[in-house]
């Protein structure tokens, strides 16, 4: 209300050329003139000096090679942009010219903005693609292989859409041993992005775990399919612990979900062909394997039969007792040779023992005594007497003969004269 009162205060009425205006009146005069003359205008130029304060508004200068004008896009409009404005970008914008009387300046209030030469969705796609590529989300090495025979499959899509019908029709003609879990989510519109993310997260909590997760819908325009290009959906697919298939129904355009998923199907029908083995092809393959197995067994049997025929004429097979007799004869020969070797060894040992006995007997003192000699020793110490110098009169001696011992006492000692 105050603003209208201010306008009334400064708006010149019945102005004459000779009557001077205040600056405030002049600015309000210009404001009314411009804003009434240009309520909406299209302009093209290059963005420069772009800034994004925390308020969410976007401030920038729109210029060409000769002139420039300040422009602002309020937060409510900026939030609806699919691409990110940047310095140097050539754009076409629609807006209204607004004059700010306190400073005597004017600016363009941008109500719509689109890049020149490329659509806003395409530009947004390119910008987000570059960002996610730098993060490595599209790298082939991070993708997981699809299971060959999945049994528990989740499908995040609209239950009322054609995608489920097309998928099931194709699946039934290929394979029938599977369970399909339909996880409802909108696939178009403002709420589609969050519902797709919620569906992907829910699929990972299903127990027992799913073998495979499909995310997709039927065909549509780029605007209809845009939720599959939203960063939140792409990030959710990248973090999914289940092998994923993107089955968005379009063959020409590629969504970012197609690039981040472990496999891309051109349509939901193609998804079934990609996910399931072909029952007929499997049957043909099994029949081929069976024929190869039977042929292999037959060839093996023939080879064993020929080998048996080759060895049945050998003497060990034809006359097995010959081998037994030969081995028994050889054993007898070994026994005879062993006995002879033992007796020869005993004979040599006996002869050697006899030789040692004779040598021992020749050296034995008893043998000397048997030839008429005797041995004299001290009765007390039992030591042999070698010299008369060792004896004393009255000492008792023992004389050892071959057949006994004589005790005697020394009465006299006579030494031989030299």
Give a structural overview.
Residues 137-353 form the Exonuclease VII large subunit C-terminal domain. Bidirectionally degrades single-stranded DNA into large acid-insoluble oligonucleotides, which are then degraded further into small acid-soluble oligonucleotides. GO terms for molecular function: exodeoxyribonuclease VII activity; nucleic acid binding. The protein has 418 residues and is of the alpha/beta class. The protein is 42% helix and 21% strand. A 5-stranded mixed β-barrel has the order 1-2-3-5-4. A 5-stranded parallel β-sheet has the order 7-6-8-9-10, with helices on both faces. A 3-stranded antiparallel β-sheet has the order 11-12-13, with no helix packed on it. α5 (162-174) runs parallel beside α9 and α6 (192-203) runs parallel beside α7 (231-239). The radius of gyration is 60 Å and the shape is elongated. The N and C termini lie far apart (176 Å). The relative contact order is 0.06.
